[in-house]
Amino acid sequence: MQQPDTTTKQSKLTLTVFLAVVSIATTSAQRNDLHKTIHELAAQVDGQVGVAIMNLSTNDTLIYNANGVFAMQSVYKFPLALAVLKKVDQKKLSLNQKIKITKQDLHPNTLSPLRDKYPDQNIEITLLELLHYTVVESDNNACDVLFGLLKGPRNVQKYVESVDVKEMKIEATEEEMSKDWYVQFTNWSKPRAMLRLLELFYKKKLLSTSSYEILWKMMAETSRGNNRIKGLLPEGTEVIHRPGTGPTNNEGKIGAVNDVGIVKLPNGKYFAIVVYAGRSTNDLAMLEKIIAEITLAAYKSDWLN
């Protein structure tokens, strides 16, 4: 009987290992190239920048300024919506239930298409409509009504902790943030924490299929911050996102210009991206451009394609 060619088998194994090592080294080099580009773009900002990107097919991740702590501003409407829809999945809330909103709930001097539509009125709208105003229109009054429905921001924080997302804190309502520039920093996260929440959402580990589809559609229709993640991507690129913007203080520092989301690549795969900028004297347009350029660099990177 012919004996196996041991030398041939060893050669094939060696080649396989060699190719695997080359692949890992190539991926690492591509990720490092993107990290260098992000560093160069972030260096243009007078303030903090934090970035987290994940290839959602491989889980390969890039983090820039891993320990940076950033005010989320309206980005936190994403975990808020997740917490509300989880209650819907648990049959503790219904999307069709009517929510009473008094004119005292519709505060002036804040972004609120809901108030603009119903000035000085007591109204009833469904929970689904309230979510739409919060996620799509970034309505601050609608956001606080949802917080009230969940009995406060701390219960959204408990939800985040329940899905094992750390390095994120949610403590203040939109109304509370509006009273003091520094309060926004009580609602904070590190970039990798929000990246983890996006990953769990994308992989459908947080909500029922129906709730997932509702929130995906709403985030795809988000009407704010479209010069950020979406700003330089090819027209028609599938993007879901939730931006956040903070006020400027007396020293000329803007608290936060953020965007977080999920982007579809030409190859049909997806990546998640978090870009936070804050405590910056740069103007809004410049910070939005930096977010757009970082996203485009990721979109075109060999690391993701």
Topology:
Elements: H1 6-42, E1 48-55, E2 61-64, E3 70-71, H2 77-89, E4 98-101, H3 113-117, E5 123-126, H4 127-135, H5 140-149, H6 153-162, E6 168-169, H7 174-179, E7 188-189, H8 191-202, H9 209-220, E8 239-245, E9 254-264, E10 270-280, H10 284-300
Antiparallel strand pairs: 1-2, 1-10, 3-7, 4-5, 6-7, 8-9, 9-10
Helix pairs in contact: 1-10, 2-6, 4-5
Task: Explain what this protein looks like in three dimensions.
This protein is an alpha+beta fold and 305 residues long. The chain has a single domain, classed as Beta-lactamase. The chain is 43% helix and 18% strand. It is built from 10 helices and 10 strands. The protein has helices at 6-42, 77-89, 113-117, 127-135, 140-149, 153-162, 174-179, 191-202, 209-220, 284-300; strands at 48-55, 61-64, 70-71, 98-101, 123-126, 168-169, 188-189, 239-245, 254-264, 270-280. The chain has a 5-stranded antiparallel β-sheet, with helices on both faces. A hairpin with a 5-residue loop joins β9 (254-264) and β10 (270-280). α2 packs across α6. It is globular. The chain starts with 5 loop residues before the first helix and ends in a 5-residue tail after the last helix. Residues 17-23 have low confidence and may be disordered.
Would you summarize the structure shown here?
With 305 residues, the protein is α+β, with helices and mostly antiparallel strands.
Low-pLDDT regions: 17-23
Dominant shape: globular
The CATH first-level class comes to: Alpha Beta
H and E order? HEEEHEHEHHHEHEHHEEEH
Number of helices: 10
Domain count, please report it. 1
Count the E strands.
10
